Amino acid sequence: MAKTEKASTEPKTQYAGQQPADGEQKAPVEVPRFMGRQIPPLDRLLITIIPPVLIVVAVIWVIADSQGAADAIGALRTFVTGEFTWLFVLYSLIALAVCIWAAFSKFGKVRLGGPKAKPLHGRFAWYSMLFACGQGIGLIFWSVAEPIMLREENPVIPAMPAGGGEEGAIVWTYFHWGLTAWAMYCVVALCLAYSHHNLGKTLTFREATVDILPKKAQRPAGVVVELLAIMATVLGLATSFGFAAMQFGSGVTSFTGIESGPAMWMIVIGAFAAVTGISAFIGINKGMARLSGLNSILSIVLVVAVFVFGPTIYMISTLTQTFGSFGQNFISMSFFTDFPLAASSLETWQDSWNGWWTVFIWCWVIAFSPFVAGFVARISRGRTIRDFVIGVTVVPSLIVMVWVGILGAAAVYYDDQTDRSISEQVAADTSSGLFAMLEQVPFVGTVLLIVATILVATYYITSLDSGTYALGEFVTAPRKSSPFFRVVLVLSIGTVATVLLAIGGEAVVDTVQTGTIIGAFPFSFVILLMIANFVRRLKKRNKEIRRMERAVNDPDPERVLVPNPDGEGFTEPSPEATTVASRPPGTDDAQ
H helices of 156-287, where? Predict the structure, then answer.
């Protein structure tokens, strides 16, 4: 079993019961065996064609009428913030509660991939890929920018005796990038992972969600769910690609003096696309794992160097106090909705603190959930649910808090020492915050500027790489996406980013990014439905389901699974039955 799983770098679908030619030795089956529904040709056509058409229409609209698009999207953002802040707060609490329940209930012992499954990746590689895919690039900038921007205004947490808001600024940054955000990624990834590795479904939102619905609604709902997931992934990756180019340019400017502009952005996009294309082509284990390992090593170098050469005692004191404050204020921050604003209509989302911060960040996490969770689910075969939840929530959250506690505290310290110069630079360009802080670190500042700039590149490349894998699964499932197709996806996303930057620059990219975040509102209902379906599946997990999970993950070529009459799932034939092969993907099955 272990040998079979190690040989298969990615879980693949299985066509059970195929008979070899006479004299040919039967090869072990690749697991998990495919036990989901075949997508009817019309549905597959819609899923393939509609997203690019809508994305092209959206891009043309933003480019043709940038101000009108920005106004319309801003109005939608105001509506979502004013009317549904409570929903996003409730959503985050549900995600956290389900993670705790799944980890510490009797279901925590359930192993993703069946009782004999072994992890495909060691812990360092696994944590590296989790962090790089989920949040690495966000922390490159917000670990400095958010503590600086929140120094003067951070609710819930009282100001220090001297009147400063530094403690609250750092604690809110812990909150926004730590445990709750990772729980929101984790619960989605857990739903997908159990559906795929244990039940043999495709690694798609459609198959993790729709079977909780009435039979007649499942097919159209599946198409809608998949369309939302694909569009969120493409637009999220494309706009991030655009910002990556601009932020990498800021990093180059910080230590070379070369002015960042459209020409540099195009070169950066081309270079990022080339490296990501190579990584996507050679596979997760060889590409993504190596890049993620490099990310982790460079991140450790950056944080340790700032800790050693920066204001060490100040950072130790900050970490000690803010860790305690985070624990003390976590419940209040988790439930904060700023309810007095609900007494009247919100004129603009900018009047709401949550609109700037918590709602914005929770929407961004939801919008990125399709590809982050899809990738995390793929690489987590062999972990128990308890191990999975702790690994995807607690460990990254501690890393986030140490990262912010060191880099954010250093930024606050140097900001005070330089008469708020870092605050001025962050106000002018959010992406410059980290570089502005690193310039102040004695002895090694210039070297760290180079390290941070490289990290911008590697974190964005790993995010794009993981997103490409997830997107390929959404589009081609139950077939495995080919390396060539993944390269085409990378080039397509890079092309969208290039068009946005070349024609409209930062304003257009920002508008599309905000629009993507607004898309998190309808997608949040999809995720809540999927969570309910996941809980239902675990509650129904009886002896028959456990036996099916073992069969789905059995590499024995002698085991044969027979399609159920309703087209949903398979069963083992009776001992006296002759061998019956399950139909491979591509056969005509409209169920």
Answer: 166-177, 179-193, 205-209, 215-256, 262-282
pLDDT for position 462? 84
3-state secondary structure 555-577: CCCCCCCEECCCCCCEECCCCCC
pLDDT at res. 79: 93
CB 177 within 8 A of CB 138: yes
Confidence of residue 2 (pLDDT cuts 50, 70, 90): very low
Tell me the residue type at 359.
Answer: V
Residue 424: C-alpha distances to residues 296, 306, 433, 439, 445 (Å): 30, 21, 9, 14, 19
The per-residue b/e assignment along 445-456, b for 16 or more CB within 10 angstroms, e otherwise, is beebbebbbbbb
Sort residue 155 into left (φ over 0), alpha (ψ -120 to 50) or beta: beta
Specify the amino acid at residue 134: G
- Tokens 């190690």 label which residue? 6
pLDDT at 339: 93
Q: Which residues contact 340 (CB under 8 A, 6 or more apart)?
A: none
Compute the distance between CA of residue 105 and CA of residue 121 in angstroms, rounded to an integer: 25
Instruction: Tell me how far apart the alpha carbons of residues 208 and 444 are, in angstroms, rounded to a whole number.
Output: 49
Question: Of all residues in the chain, what percent are helix, strand and coil, respectively (each to 5)?
Answer: 75, 0, 25
Q: Please state, as a whole number, how many other Cβ atoms lie within 10 Å of the Cβ of residue 169.
A: 24
Contact call for residues 525 and 545 (beta carbons, < 8 A): no
Conformational region of residue 40, where left means phi above 0, alpha means psi within -120 to 50, and beta covers everything else: beta
Q: How far is CA 54 from CA 46, 50, 59, 73, 234, in A?
A: 12, 6, 9, 16, 11
φ, ψ of residue 574 to 5 degrees: the values are: -65, 155
* CATH 1.10.3470 assigned to 35-107+126-539+559-571: no
How far apart CA 388 and CA 443 sit, in angstroms, is 41
Report whether 367 contacts 516 (CB < 8 A).
yes
Residue pointed to by tokens 């995720």: 527
pLDDT recorded at residue 285: 58
Which pLDDT value is given to residue 514?
Answer: 82
State the number of CA atoms in the 13 A half-sphere of 143 facing the CB.
27
Three-class secondary structure of residue 111 per DSSP? strand
Helix/strand/coil (H/E/C) assignment for every residue in 118-160: CCCCCHHHHHHHHHHHHCHHHHHHHHHHHHHHCCCCCCCCCCC
Asked if 191 and 206 touch (Cβ cutoff 8 Å), the reply is no
Distance (Å, whole) CA 512 – CA 122: 37
User: Is the pLDDT reported for residue 480 higher than 90?
Assistant: no
